[in-house]
Amino acid sequence: MHTCGDPMNFGATILGVDGVRLTKDEFTFFRDADPFGFILFSRNIDTPDQVYGLCSELRDAVGRNAIITIDQEGGRVQRLGAPHWQEWLPPLDFIQSAGDNAERAMYLRYRLIAYELTQLTIDSNCAPMLDVLVAATHDFLRNRCYGSSPYDISILGRAAANGMLDGGVVPVIKHLPGHGRAALDSHFALPHVDVSIEILREADFVPFRALADLPMGMTAHVVYEAVDEEPATLSSEIMQLIREDIGFDGLIMTDDIGMKALTGGASQIVTRALGAGCDVILHCNASLSERIETATAAGKMNSKSQARAEAARASGSFLNNIDNTELRAELESLLA
Q1: Which candidate in 131, 204, 245, 255 is catalytic?
Q2: Which residue range is the domain that position 15 belongs to?
Q3: pTM summary value
Q4: Which H/E stretch holds residue 219?
Q5: Measured torsion, CA atoms of residues 103, 105, 109, 115, in degrees rounded to the nearest 10
């Protein structure tokens, strides 16, 4: 088991859920493991009342207001969709359609997404995605990017993050320190990036450095050959680079450790990721027995990770109430 911190600290995990309601075994497991938070997928989504109820069950299981996150980027990566929730264009298509109004449009887009999330008591979103689009970018990521200019991505990513924060939702920047040059889909294989550290600093790292003040970030399962032979999630050298070069001091969560880019058993991956410097383990799609293995290996957060977790949790407590109808009308006028 990973070294525990204070016994009152959160479990160093964010875990997925099997279905639209908790099973008795899941409830018991979550009560005992006390994960920092949970992540929802399409398999967990039916109606607004059902999602609201599932979120209540998750928080009842751990006995506190645990963070609940989701991938609601819009486009292909959108867990909430019609008929109950708004369907969004992929980010790149949306940005192109907004033209000169893209910055304001991105703020409104993610402020409206935040509104829909908070109606369900989902209080985090795995966005903005700050990966820089290049010729080699794999199709699974391409239209999820905000563009090919690091400067423009920084502006648009900030607008998206502010929209969520103003709506009471904690943003998660991804994929640290940059997934755009990966020519493989890390869900199925381990990508390697072979450009120099100077090129990475001048381009890929720029948006992450610009948004390094945000409370949460997600790693990339990508090898950066100029730095280390290990993928970022398992590399202490990359974690040091994220902390010192990029300057990100928020909570670092792994991308899903069940993705095929990482090899080995769950407990081995957990130990290596936490040993490298990640704060919390994300495990999205796993059997109950594998989630138990993950939580056991992760143990409790250490004191530094706990402080980052509490700061991230608090960052979503501010809610700037704005007329949702007016926001939609303004966005429609910008896109008209």
Answers
A1: 255
A2: 11-335
A3: 0.95
A4: strand 216-219
A5: 100
